[in-house]
Description:
With 322 residues, the protein is α/β, with parallel strands linked by helices. The chain folds into two domains: 6-183 and 302-317, 3-Layer(aba) Sandwich (Rossmann fold), CATH 3.40.50; 189-291, no CATH class. 30% of the residues lie in helices and 16% in strands. Strands 3-2-1-4-5-7-6 form a seven-stranded mixed sheet, sandwiched between helices. Strands 8-9-10 form a three-stranded mixed sheet. α2 links the parallel β2 and β3. The protein is globular and about 55 Å long.
Amino acid sequence: MRKRNSLVDLFAGGGGFTRGFHEAGFNSILAIEVDDAAARTYVVNYPRAMTIAEDIRDVRCEHVRRLIQGIEVDVLIGSPPCEPFTGSNPNRMRDPLDRLYKDEQGQLVLEYIRLLECLGPEYFVLENVSAMIEGDLKSALKEEFGRAGYDVHFNMLRAEDYGTPSRRLRVFISNLRLSPPRNGRLITVWEAISDLPEPSPEPIIPNHEPPPGLSKSKLKRASRLKWGGSVVKYEGAGGYALPNLIRLHPYRVAPTVLGSSRFIHPYENRLLTVREQARLMGFADDHVFLGGREQQYNQVGEAVPPPLARVIALEILKHIGG
């Protein structure tokens, strides 16, 4: 059975990847997301899609096929957890291949490939950190996708080149070479957030409540920060020190938004609200995030920026059905 521009999203999170595809004209028919708060966020934003709030390892191929009732899937997307691969994880396994085959979270990439083979879509896109193709991982992934019947391209794309007001380099593994045309200019932090009203306990714009307060010591340090400075640093893989609680420069693109990262307002001594961080990822204001405050921040930071997802979707539309 044919349903035009049908989409399935694995490791769907709060729906950023789906959002861009929806804006390009795709129809989400199914999503899988294990985190309850993120799954509820997905449901409220895409009520017509079926959402399975389970561990993907427990989702059988036959069950998925039964749910979609014979609909041919045009595109499968998904963002398996990046923790096994990212350089910001101090506990990342030393051997790149161990990150895929021995790390329990890394093995979730193989679950994506299992359902890719099950559904047999015309196109697929898997997003992750660029470190996912370090060392021998690239060859191993080619082999794994080849077993599922797909040749692959490793597309390195920067979100800021496509209308996202924050920096984000990611690899998009696909059976299609993706090279969307870039925007003419970058969008700055202040362009993205300056028109928002002051945070309010009952905000007109969702997820724009007053942010959590900083401790006295951190607030004192934050008040002395220049643009681009950070209050704290944390240890990443290999012992590298990475900044957090960064005072944003209003006239530059924001640093990479992560689930664990928080930013300080360019002019006020406070954290950004969830909505302000969502603006830095290119989310529209009608995209609602559910769950506790930390869960909402995580859903924003772990998403694929919708503007980048949209240009990828438009590239696929040029080829779909051809």
